[in-house]
Design goal:
The structure holds two protein chains of two kinds. By secondary structure, chain A is mainly α. In chain A, 80% of the residues lie in helices and 0% in strands. Chain A has ten helices and no strands. Chain A starts with a helix and ends in a 10-residue tail after the last helix. Chain A has a single domain, classed as MetI-like (MetI-like fold, Orthogonal Bundle), CATH 1.10.3720. By secondary structure, chain B is mostly helical. Chain B has one domain: Orthogonal Bundle (MetI-like fold), CATH 1.10.3720. Helices cover 83% and strands 0% of the residues of chain B. Chain B contains eleven helices and no strands. Classes of the chains: A mainly alpha, B mainly alpha. The interface between A and B is large, with 59 and 63 residues.
Chain lengths: 253, 255
Amino acid sequence: MPERVKALLLPLAILLLLEIWARAVHLQSDSLAPPSAVARALAEALADGTLLVATRDTLISAFAGLLIGGAIGLVFGIALGIFHVFDRLMEVTIEAIRPIPSIALLPIALIALGFGYRMEIVIVAFACVWPMLILSRAAVAGIEPRLIEVARALRLSPPDRVRKIIIPAALPRIFLAFRLAAGIALIVAVTVEIAINPIGLGAGIMTAQQALRPDLMLAYLVWIGGVGYVLNAGLMAAQRHLFGRAALAGEPA
Amino acid sequence: MSRTDLYWRAASFFVAAGFVGLWQVIAKLKLVSPVFLPGPDRAWSSLIRGFASGDLWNMLLGTLGHMAFGWFIASIAGIGLGTMIGSSRTMRRYVAPSLEFLRPLPVSAIIPVAIALLGLTQSMALSVIAFGAVWPMLLATIHGFAAVEPRLYEVARSLHLSRAAVIFKIALPSASPDILSGMRLSLTVALILSVVCEILAGLDGLGHWVLLSARAFRSADLFAGVMLLGVIGYLTALAMSIAEKRLLRWRTGGH
């Protein structure tokens, strides 16, 4: 049996069993629904556009936060990687702020900015700063020292040094950091929406739960899983395409 | 730590103290409305007051309890299931791809489903935390089992070791660095999900505390709660990395 078929066997069997069980007991539940009803709810939500609007809202917040937080993390990461003194001096400050769980900022963002895109973007950005900062600092610090010597021998100005030597040399690992941060951005965006913010996919799934529509709730769950999967697979493909297979080897599991 | 390291550390502390000073100045001059930004002095006194009255203790213990129980259940389930799946090539082929497929799912999306099944209860929170925290450990264990040096299995075969002996003497120890780093990752997930569940279900804990403080615009209490959450994050990560170093000492010592 080819590997692909083996991989699909388990999920298909589970779906089939759920469907048979739901029909056998004539499932009437506020919390579960047979797969066929979930598929129908998914198709309806896609057709009337609510699902797409919610996806757009979530992705806008996630990407805006990713870009802002990622840029801040990248700039600081590169600066800390280049200037060793700066790195040592900021150590305690960074260690003190980093462990704060991003979601703990939610109430602060809520009273400062109210509901909506802005508070969500701020929280996503905070969460995205750290992987970017830590990994790009490591990437810059790990650059072959001879490249830096070349830059010195060529008397490149500091901005040129960053643009022509440091960023190209560290780029594969920076992209890896970007991919990890993108995953975090989606997770944090959905979490903020589920916890409190009335927009996007997270709010959609909460509303479906409160309206006692398990079919729609599970349809949202499947869709959110699909969005996460496509985002991850797309970025992974981009990474392989841009940097070759070698870039994927040896990354943390 | 060498002498120069110590000096750098001290300098770094001064820089951090400088930032706290700056925060104090900004708050004092009311550059940012005190409704959103209390000074560090007010946040600190609120922290002391909270502990003195015992309120903050209860919230702290609540969050730590959710986090620890959920993480503990997840550790047992993750390593157990991971061992089951990882130690059998057939299971790995049939089950692992489905797990990899689920990996990018934002785990918090499971919260509404858990609420529908279990209501706004303590057990809902624990199952969500355990479900979220199980993934890093489960996948790390499977990965660790798959990456065991094949020659070690050959040694086991020639020694006629039983399946259980292979798992406990060879596979688990050799997968332990992966498993421990999975456990560290899970700790962060458990803390975040604890806070979210407390916010949603109103369970006793710091998540509930910070939300209530925000709703009442008691920003000093809010900041005290957020700082405490940072301390939990820092100390649990520190404890985990110390445990990791001790548990893995045999690996670096022998070579």
